[in-house]
Design a protein that fits this description.
Layout: H1 4-41, E1 46-48, E2 55-57
Antiparallel strand pairs: 1-2
Bound molecules: zinc ion.
Length: 66
């Protein structure tokens, strides 16, 4: 049996769930953008070491061969 009090209570619960869902969605969206930003910033030039064949940071050189 639905009473006005129950309807208001139900509406409040639905609003809380909706806001919670939106907050999670926004947080995931932000995290995704952050990840994309980080990955593009973290792009480094990789070169193949002529001695051992390992892919190494072009700036730092091969850590295996020294
Ligand atoms: Zn090497």
């Amino acid at each position: 049996m639905f009473t006005p009090t129950k309807l208001i209570f139900l509406a409040v619960i639905l609003a809380v769930i909706w806001f919670g869902y939106r907050m999670i969605e926004r947080r995931q969206d932000t995290a995704k953008h952050e990840r994309e930003k980080t990955s593009s910033d973290a792009t480094v030039d990789m070169i193949e070491c002529k001695k051992c064949g390992a892919w190494v940071d072009a700036k730092e050189g091969c850590s295996i061969c020294g």
